[in-house]
Amino acid sequence: MENNQNNCIRNMMYGLNQLVALDNGTMVPAINLDNAATTPPFQAVVKEIECQMLQYGSIGRGKGQKSEHSTKIYAQGRDIVKDFVGANSNIYSVFYVNSTTDGMNKLASALIESDEDIVLTTRMEHHANDLPWRQRAKTLYAEIKADGRLCIVNLERHLIQQRGKIKYVTVTAASNVTGYVNDLHQIAKLAHRHGAKIIVDGAQIVAHRQFCMLGQSPDENIDFFVFSAHKMYSPFGGGAVVGLKEVLDAHIPQFYGGGMVEAVCDEQVRYLTVPDLYEAGSPNYPGVVGMLKSIELLKQIGFDYIAAHEQRLLRKTIHTLQQLPNVVLYGDNENIADRVGIVTFNVRGIKPEAVANFLAGHAAIAVRHAAFCAHPYVRRLTMAPEDCGIESCVAPQGMVRVSFGIYNNDDDVDAFLAALRKLLINERLNAFASRPAIAMKPNWPQDRG
Questions:
Q1: How far is CA 192 from CA 124, 156, 218, 221, 247, in A?
Q2: Quick one: pLDDT at residue 30?
Q3: pLDDT-based confidence at 440, cuts 50/70/90?
Q4: What secondary structure letter does DSSP report for 252?
Q5: Cβ-based burial of 449 (10 A; exposed 0-12, middle 13-18, buried ≥19)
Q6: pTM (predicted TM-score)
Q7: b or e along 146-173 (b: 16 or more beta carbons within 10 Å of the residue's beta carbon)?
Q8: What residue ranges define each of the domains in the chain, with the CATH number in brackets?
């Protein structure tokens, strides 16, 4: 049953069997294990965009038939987005963005009123949910535990110590480094108890787990949620921010232009309310259309299946990597129920870039290496505590990341593991060959892979 459904999903993907060149010139199908960065699109997403382009007209700016059709699709999409993230309430509004980074910057530019405002974030954040805040406000950081999980006790301590001065708590839903899923409703409850609002970076959760902004009680509600479409099988620059209408209406982002104003006079400007207030300029209609179609397809496939499939591939990969010599895994690799399909590792004696280059050049396997736009987090995972300070601001060497999509299967995992074994054997043979002959021993240990 699992194989049948996975085969159906693979048939839904666009470009999955595209051939690429290995280092020796051989053309083979690419294997994408870098889905945490960008996913391939669904075929139906590409077709939907092509279809909607036949009826494409200016959004909200004309009375022609095509313009009215496009405006209707664009406007109705806001309700689809709200339903997708469990925000079916009149307290929320939706505005479209080009990416999570774009959304976070718009929120930061609007919500921060003074450089004395205090924002509490964490040391496990992507730069998109760190730099926009540290550039505009005073930022405090909740630390992580030894296993890489967020330390909720430390986060609460900050809230207590600041005595209601923290305006916003901003945190990732799922880490792009370890895949840990944070208990956001618990964090929301803590934030609200101390007078703060919560902002969630949802980039890594939307394609993996069902998410609901509304909690079991109002104090558990998520106030703002930001995500990108290019990580959920529609890589056309779409994304959205879902947030409290009342708060958004009381602020204005530092992005100005047409479409956000009711009237402009010689000495005065009257601005519209959310969502128009946050969508200056011509909108990315293809990005929105693609995102809406990908939402429909993800809901059809079902997040119960997605989570179970992902956990199975994750467990298989981790189990085998634990058996390989000189492979170092990061995070808690025993209790993985709170992780989306991400594995990070290093190979002793081989730079992460060299591992990634080998996998791509010899097996057409795409992975990510380095620090994944999360330098403070990666430092804490890979370096000794005394080396994680601020005296020298140098990017960490990082690690290698494997990340799964809904279409990946056992063959993809097996190909990755086989290629990694080959790399380990080659490295062993190279090291072996460089030794003097007298050092050669007949009882050289067998390959553990």
A1: 21, 11, 10, 9, 15
A2: 97
A3: very low
A4: -
A5: middle
A6: 0.94
A7: eebbbbeeebbebbeebeebbbbbbbbb
A8: 2-41+302-439 (3.90.1150.10), 46-300 (3.40.640.10)
29, 19 contact by CB (below 8 A): yes
Strand partners, 199: 170, 224
- For residue 218, the one-letter residue type is P
Half-sphere exposure of 173 (CA within 13 A, CB side): 25
Of 77, 91, 94, 88, which Cα lies nearest the Cα of 244?
Answer: 91
Q: How far apart, in whole angstroms, are the C-alpha atoms of residue 324 and residue 336?
A: 19
What's the mean pLDDT in 217-229?
Answer: 98
CA dihedral 80, 82, 86, 90 (to 10 degrees): -130
Q: To 5 degrees, how large is the angle CA 289–CA 221–CA 223?
A: 60
How much is the average pLDDT of 12-32?
97
Cα separation, 375 vs 395, whole angstroms: 7
pLDDT higher than threshold 90 for residue 444: no
- Tokens 């902004």, residue? 213
Query: Which residue matches tokens 């004395």?
Result: 116
At 19, list the tokens: 């051939």
pLDDT tens per residue, range 402-431:
999 999 999 999 999 999 999 999 887 675
With bands split at pLDDT 50, 70 and 90, how would you rate the model's confidence at 438? very low
CA-only gyration radius of the chain, Å: 24
State the DSSP string of 74-141.
HHHHHHHHHHHTT--STTEEEEE-SSHHHHHHHHHHHH---TT-EEEEETT--GGGTHHHHTTSEEEE
Structure tokens of 438? Answer: 């007298």
β pairing state of 31-32 and 365-366:
parallel
Residues with Cβ < 8 Å from 235, sequence gap 6 or more?
38, 39, 40, 41, 229, 290
Split at pLDDT 50, 70, 90, the class of 3 is: confident
Report the distance separating Cα 297 and Cα 301, nearest Å.
6
**Helix (H/G/I), strand (E/B), else coil: 197:** strand
- H-run or E-run covering 433: helix 410-433
